[in-house]
Design brief:
Layout: H1 3-10, E1 16-18, E2 24-26, H2 29-38, H3 46-58, E3 68-72, E4 79-85, E5 92-97, E6 103-108, E7 114-121, E8 124-132, E9 140-148, E10 151-160, E11 176-180, H4 197-209, E12 214-216, E13 221-222, E14 238-242, H5 253-257, H6 259-266, H7 268-279, H8 285-308, H9 313-346, H10 366-374, H11 376-402, E15 408-413, H12 422-426, E16 435-439, E17 449-453, H13 458-463, H14 467-477, E18 482-485, E19 493-498, E20 507-510, H15 513-527, E21 530-533, H16 543-549, E22 554-557, E23 562-563, E24 567-568, E25 578-581, H17 590-595, H18 597-604, H19 611-635, H20 649-664, E26 670-674, H21 675-678, H22 705-708, H23 712-729
Parallel strand pairs: 3-10, 11-12, 11-26, 12-15, 15-18, 18-21, 22-25, 25-26
Antiparallel strand pairs: 1-2, 4-8, 5-6, 5-9, 7-8, 9-10, 13-14, 16-17, 16-19, 19-20, 23-24
Helix pairs in contact: 1-3, 4-11, 6-8, 8-9, 9-11, 14-15, 20-23
């Protein structure tokens, strides 16, 4: 191996990868150097590589204890490696401050600690020995303090369980059914041109009354209020906070108290704009923001004058929320206010934080300090928005549980954030710039994919005791009964695409998989929240067995579950430890699949490289239509009085019921029904490979909520799935 190869291997850059067809692609030297540079590791010359490799290999030996250790709960007493001089006779004094406030302490002679390794460094001999921890450490996050001679060091000890909270922790052996929606797409009786938390509450209540156990939603992450048109929930401003455009303004207590807000909303011109937004087929996010934000500003003015100034009970609730979330909430609010200010001054060219004045580009900058003092009210406003959004989400979750949702709301955690995000500004070292998360070329994307998202730095992640990952889990398990982790393979490895090289010249970079699985299990059990891992695409060998052992449910999509010559797999072949669904936000609906609407879009937008590729997809879809009918007949779910002619109108009408009967016969513990399928909508949510060419993340449901739950299409699918559940339990 060359020095570059050894250095790349040391930081987890894979030497290459096999594509879905088994062809080996070797990671290029250019890709390795670019990724190392993005990590902050010099590697341009041989001398750079030698020096960097030496620093990395020596780093663990230059500290008494590493920043974090994840200890298995079932294998206690755990052990922590410590580095000591080989000739030391000084006792090792240790103390563990438990998360719950208790302590453990002791003194250990180095000679009584298990010797693992010896190494000479700077003319001295060092030893790596294992410190045995107390055998009764509770689950959680604890602080270890070590003293050896004149050296003092601290570390985080994470005691974590083996498995996540699972379906058997709710009801042993039972299967659960959910309804999935895109929150923004819901049409309420009085929405603001976008579905909001009040509509989610009503959807959850209606789903519970219909017998559902959970309600799935798109990522609810905070978006960019300075540019609301950036609508993809998978490219947010922050994964740790909520999208303020989902607030139901008339449900905020301040609305009833604020005469200026009520007067604005009742204004004739305002009402005309609001009615137009409500009845539009597609969401205009800029218009929604222009309607909503001025009203929310008036509500905040009322809250500030009537409550904060007087120290009311609501003021105490706000301050408690602010104190509980501390510095991270303050940083997020500062970013949002700064970004508004900068884009207001310089337009979209000042949207990204690296285009701001130099003293505003980091939270510690002098410009940020001046802004914080001069614009404190605007920062408070953004904190107020998060407080209101969090409370309305909590109310929606509680209403759903009271209506019968045994699991509750099923949230979605995006794989990352972009380089212009609040997270990248607040924690620039945690996220890697100069590379993007993506995917290598495959049969669906011949050129590969660049998702424009910044990966977490795997080496610094451990230095930070996994705090960014823990924060994202906690934020998204809040008020949730289940959580989907998008592209869950990222817990083991992510495909990094260096700037300027393209997806075809990217590389996989490893992450501390076992530690991340353990932390996910710990947070899952603390929040009593199921975890579903979106394991679609190229799945590494051994990944799914490890995920299954950790109690993370697999994510199985009928359109991808194939055998032999593209035949749909039988229901009995699906795994039990999984959630099953007909499609995803990136795939056509059942109706769209049947009509080939996605293929029409690709042809209209010129997304095919040549006519032959388009013709091949048309032929493939025609064959798939026949395969689908045959699979439904084989499973015994095709109605006998309906012809199996794929060209007949009646065929398309019965498809949603037959498909979800098929999926209800799988042994999967969770079944998720997409509301778009129930209503036979033909247009898909997101068309991969497009941004503005296709109305991604903007389509609304064709029926308002009160009509949706009363529709015969909804009732037919609900009844069919309920009958299948009863049949299986008999």
């Amino acid at each position: 191996m060359t020095l570059l190869d050894r250095l790349a291997e040391r930081v987890g850059i894979a030497p290459g990868y096999h594509d879905v067809e088994g062809t080996w692609f070797e990671t290029s030297g250019a890709a390795k150097r670019a990724i190392l540079a993005a990590m902050g590791i010099p590697a341009e010359t041989g001398d750079d590589q030698a020096a960097s490799l030496a620093r990395l290999e020596e780093a663990p030996w230059r500290t008494l204890v590493e920043p974090v250790s994840v200890v298995a709960d079932e294998a206690q007493p755990g052990h922590v490696p410590v580095t000591l001089p080989a000739d030391t006779t000084e006792p090792l004094v240790w103390q563990i401050a438990l998360e719950n406030g208790g302590t453990r302490d002791g003194v250990t002679a180095p000679s009584r600690m298990h010797l693992v390794e010896r190494r000479a460094l700077d003319g001295a001999m060092l030893e790596r020995r294992m410190l045995a921890l107390p055998g009764d450490l509770p689950l959680g996050y604890h602080r270890l303090r070590l003293v050896s001679g004149g050296t003092v060091a601290e570390s985080t000890i994470i005691v974590a369980p083996k498995t996540c909270w699972g379906p058997d922790d709710i009801v042993a052996g039972e299967r659960f059914v959910g309804l999935a929606c895109q929150l923004y797409s819901l049409r309420g009786e009085a929405d603001w041109g976008i579905g909001h938390f009040g509509d989610l509450r009503n959807f959850a209540v209606g789903a519970g009354a219909a017998g559902a156990d959970l309600v799935g939603v798109n990522p609810l992450h905070a978006m960019f209020l300075a540019d609301p048109a950036q609508a993809s929930p998978y490219s947010p401003a922050s994964r740790d906070w909520l999208n303020a455009l989902y607030i139901d303004p008339t449900a905020v207590p301040d609305f009833a108290e604020s005469e200026p807000a009520r007067r604005l909303v009742s204004d004739t011109d305002f009402q005309q704009r609001l009615e137009k937004a409500r009845h539009a087929e597609l969401i205009d996010y800029r218009e929604v923001a222009e309607l909503l934000l001025p009203v929310l500003e008036l509500l905040f003015d009322n809250f500030r004058d009537r409550h904060l100034a007087r120290g009311t009970e609501r003021a105490r609730g706000f301050r408690s929320f602010r104190d509980r979330h501390g510095r991270e909430l303050e940083l997020f609010a500062q970013f949002m206010a700064l970004q508004e200010d900068q884009t207001g001054r310089g337009g979209i060219e000042r949207f990204a934080w690296w285009a701001w004045p130099e003293d505003c580009r980091t939270p510690s900058g002098a410009g940020v300090d001046r802004f914080r003092r001069s614009r404190s009210a605007r920062i408070d406003f953004h904190i107020y928005l998060q407080w209101i959004a969090d409370e309305q989400l909590r109310q929606a979750a509680e209403a759903g549980r009271q209506a019968g949702l045994r699991i509750g709301i099923y949230r979605d955690l995006a794989v990352g954030v972009g380089p212009a995000s609040a997270s990248a500004w607040a924690h620039p070292r945690a996220l890697v710039r100069g590379v993007s998360i993506g995917a290598p070329p495959d049969v669906y994307n011949r050129l590969g994919q660049n998702w424009g998202l910044s990966p977490l730095h795997p080496l610094l992640l451990k230095e930070q005791a996994f705090r960014p990952f823990i924060a994202a889990l906690r934020a998204n398990m809040r008020h949730a009964g289940a959580l989907r982790i998008d592209h869950v393979m990222g817990l083991m490895r992510l495909f990094w695409v260096p700037e300027g090289l393209g997806p075809g010249n990217g590389a996989y970079v490893a992450y501390p998989f076992d530690d991340l699985l353990r932390i996910a299990a710990l947070e899952s059990r603390r929040h009593r929240c199921l975890v579903v891992g979106e394991d679609l695409g190229t799945v590494p060998e051994g990944f799914r067995p490890a995920m299954n052992a950790a109690g993370i449910l697999s994510y199985r999509v009928m359109q991808f579950e194939r055998v032999g010559d593209g035949l749909f797999a039988r229901p009995t072949t699906y795994p039990e430890a999984a959630m099953v669904t007909a499609g995803t936000h990136d795939l056509p609906t059942i109706e769209g699949f049947w009509l080939g609407r996605d293929l029409e879009w690709r042809r209209e937008l010129g997304l095919y490289p040549d006519p032959e590729a388009a013709a091949g997809d048309r032929d493939g879809r025609r064959a798939d239509r026949r395969r689908l009918i045959d699979a439904l007949i084989d499973a015994g779910v095709w109605p006998p009085d309906v012809p199996d002619d794929e060209e007949a109108d009646e065929t398309a009408r019965v498809l949603p019921v037959a498909v979800y009967r098929f999926l209800a016969r799988t042994p999967c513990r969770l079944l998720m029904i997409q509301i778009e399928d129930m209503l036979r909508q033909r247009e898909q949510i997101n068309l991969p490979g497009t941004v503005d060419e296709h109305p991604n993340w903007r389509r609304r449901l064709e029926l308002p909520l009160h009509e949706l739950f009363a529709s015969p299409e909804f009732a037919a699918v609900v009844a069919a799935v309920a009958n299948e559940r009863r049949r299986q339990s008999d």
